[in-house]
Amino acid sequence: MKIKKAIFLKRLNRFTVQCYSGNRKLNAYLPNPGRLWELLIPGRILYLKKNRGNFNFKVFATLRENELICLDTHHTNNVVKEILKEGFIKDLKSYKLKEEEIRIGNKRIDFLLEKGGDLFPLEVKSCTLYNDGIAMFPDAVTERGRNHVELIAKYKGIIIFVVYFSKAEYFLPDFHTDPLFSRTLSEYRNSILIKPISIKLDEGGSFKFIKELKIPWHVYDREGKDKGSYIIYGELKEDITIRIGELGRKFFEKGYYLYVGSAMNSLSKRVKRHLKKNKNVKWHIDYLISYFENIKPIEIRSSEKIECAISKELGSIYENVEKFGSSDCKCKSHLYFSFKNPFEDERFIEILLKYRISRLKNFI
After folding, report:
1. In angstroms, rounded to a whole number, what is the distance separating the alpha carbons of residues 229 and 337?
2. Measured between alpha carbons, how far is 302 from 304 in angstroms, rounded to an integer?
3. What contacts 24+ positions apart, CB below 8 Å, involve 325-333?
4. pLDDT > 70? residue 1
């Protein structure tokens, strides 16, 4: 497989990226609908291959922690097909591949396996979200993925999560990003053969099977409840001066803002309330949020209240808006400002990974 290297510049839309290669800018097809926040950071290396569609190139992989992370979800199916052929997964050695790309009702399933005359559907999921030994899926809300789980459970089938990190030890559903998918996978965990595996990829598309990963369901049962902290990201396109309750009139500079809050009961409901246009003004953020554009709510589920810890870390890299949102704690602020988009800042992404993923190791 012929590979062309490029430097990632920006994501133009869900399936298109702009990159720099051979002294020119080019657009490439991205065959991956995930958010990929920790991977698509300006300056990262992309590995492109020839494409037959509207774009001359499509993104095959990127590089993180000196490992190739496959972003071509179609290639993952080829990987699994080879894994089944070679019998790398112990519990699937007695299964035979019968068909590919089958339909059950109105759903497409990746493979159909046969064992002892019985048929079992197999769905493959590509997992790119990883930190500190723990892989999580999905990194974006996936109704399609949840429907697959329900269908696979109905037929006592199999789901393989392919993790593109050789140092991964554990796998969990990403209850921060998609609590409904995570809850569904947990509910059916005794009806589905769930197999998360780690592999190491090379530039030619070949791979080395590393191992099966452990699923610490007790961590999900403890930490996956609807409570914890949240960050609301928003952009101001121009300078404004508005009244913020008892804080009075405050000036807000054009740029990017991050607000940190918590709800140790009904986290999703709290975040949805903040995002509503018509509501009673209660918190400082309620005065400001209606002026934001490109709003992104980021939920961080936890059994412990970690709002102030997250806030202090953001305050170590960004400018604080004094006393905003911190009237009931000792923090200087819970609102932070940046001229640069935080999603293009690796320091911000590392904070998200630390509190969403790395802290889970405390409970394993």
Report:
1. 19
2. 5
3. 325/259, 325/260, 325/261, 325/283, 325/284, 325/285, 327/284
4. no
Structure tokens at 269: 């409901």
Three-state DSSP at 226 gives coil
Start-end of H helices in the chain: 73-86, 143-154, 179-187, 217-223, 267-275, 284-288, 307-315, 346-356
Q: What are phi and psi of 346, to 5 degrees?
A: -60, -25
Nearest to 159 by CA among 114, 209, 193: 193
Residue 121, CA distances (Å) to 104, 150, 158 in order:
9, 12, 6
Q: 307-315 vs 346-356: helix axis angle to the nearest 10?
A: 160
Strand partners, 29: 16, 58
Tokens of 110: 């990746």
Distance between CA atoms of 158 and 142, rounded to whole angstroms? 18
**pLDDT digit string (tens) for 53-75?**
788 999 999 999 999 999 998 89
Residue 278 one-letter amino acid: N
Mean pLDDT over 109-126 rounds to 96
- DSSP 3-state of 63: strand
Spatial separation of the C-alpha atoms in residues 349 and 326, rounded to whole Å: 23
What type of residue is 69? Answer: I
Q: How many CA atoms lie within 13 A of 341 on its CB side?
A: 12
Q: How far is CA 9 from CA 12, 28, 234, 287, in A?
A: 9, 11, 21, 34
Report d(CA 88, CA 98) in Å as an integer: 18
- Identity of residue 253: E
- Distance, in Å, from the CA atom of 353 to the CA atom of 355, rounded to the nearest integer, reads 6
How far apart are the C-alpha atoms of 298 and 230, rounded to whole Å? 5
For residue 121, is the peptide bond before it cis, meaning its omega torsion is within 30 degrees of 0? no
Q: Report how far residue 20's alpha carbon sits from residue 27's, in angstroms, rounded to the nearest whole number.
A: 9
C-alpha 326/C-alpha 276 separation (Å) is 22
Digit-coded pLDDT (tens) for 179-195: 999 999 999 999 999 99
